[in-house]
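Fold this complex.
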Amino acid sequence: MNSILLASNRGPVSFTVSEDGVLTMKRGGGGLVSGLSGVAKDQGVLWVCAALSDGDHSAVRQAPGGRLDHAGYKTGALRMLDIAPAVFHRAYNSVANSTLWFVNHLLYDTPNAPHFGTRFQRDWESYRDYNGAFALALAEEAGHGARVMVQDYHLTLTPAMLRAERPDLRIAHFSHTPWAPPEYFSLLPDDVAGEVLEGILGADHAGFLTHRWAGAFMDCCETVLGARVNRADRTITHEGRVTRVGVHALGVDGKALWARAAEPDVESHMAALREQVGERRLIVRIDRTELSKNIVRGLLAYREFLAAHPEWHGRVVHLAFAYPSRHDLPEYREYTASVQRCAQEIEDEYATEDWVPLILNVEDDYPRSLAAYRMADVLLVNPIRDGMNLVAKEGPVLSPRCALVLSREAGAAAELGPHALMVNPYDVSGTAGALHRALVMPEEERARRREGLESAATALPPQKWLAAQLDALA
Ligand code: F6P
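Structure:
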């Protein structure tokens, strides 16, 4: 039996299976995983996650009780749930990623979407089943009085379901996304909106990345549920239970990041990139190809910058790394195509025989991303809305001279704002102007701002972030 448990959709590792049935294990992707993998292992946490790939399903089926560590994999204590693919697809793609993600990131084109009909009701049933599978596994694995940390929008119902099974447990839920204001959250059918909020209120502690998202959650509880909210104490009372709301601004572990970024594979990517771009200045962006990351407007801003500043032609290169994400959703496939189209237009307009103004890469390559961070003169992070954005925090730690152009709608803006050049993510011309200011920023100002960024970015590394949440459950 375990005394500390962590639950998230994506786990710290994933498997691929070759044609001859051989399984290969690699590190899982995404901000949550990169933040928590190291710490969870150190603290002896049991991690419960879903099997995502075919390889994961094969690995789980061969592991006793779904415990990959018991099957001899060096994963840290890990149980993967073998959820039926149809249930998983509806819960993950239709509800979590196409509905809750869209609501919390304000992504709907409302004249056309969403539509909540019978199909959605079926998908919602699957989301309940998927959350129930996590609640069941956690109830089985948790020792008496254990502390359980449930992560993110995939698992909003799990806390209340788990509490119903195991009232002895101390439960936290943490949202890695923004939270929508009540008038937008209320796009959800009323019963679904209520179930999501009451699901999270099943926890003793509901954690958010910024005060802004925590405030929006409290506003939704008050408006939608009629819950009693005490903003000064950050407590929500609903149906006789009290849930505390906490703000924990996840940051990066500078030392660990540097240790990884100093490895030879990163150095050789740096050499290759240097060969490609010469001594030109670099504007870097690194994202999942994700609607909320606002990559197209970022490219349009670079285009406007080139149009307004011919003096930079031949002297600057934009490295845009947009690695694949959520390709089961048509919106994401179309978005990737728009990114590629826009990049092609910039190349057609500006490339010369000896200057490539933009290098767009849509393959995931972690060491190459670290190389780009180390070489950046400017880092562009312009999401429409983002829970935190760890790219904005990693870049200034690794680059000796980068200036940050940052969207005011990223959670990271709360801490990094004073040291970054802030932009309205919809304002393409404003972003173009900020790119120029970042390039011409005097060295003394650049160094001062970068120092401020680095210390804010490393203020709450994952170890401390996890400890703060565990303390909140003590
Ligand atoms: O922002 C929430 C989050 O869970 C991140 O931690 C992570 O980068 C991303 O979403 C993962 O998305 P997915 O698991 O769908 O690739």
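Residues 10, 30-32, 152, 176-177, 325-326, 387 surround 6-O-phosphono-beta-D-fructofuranose (CB under 6 Å).
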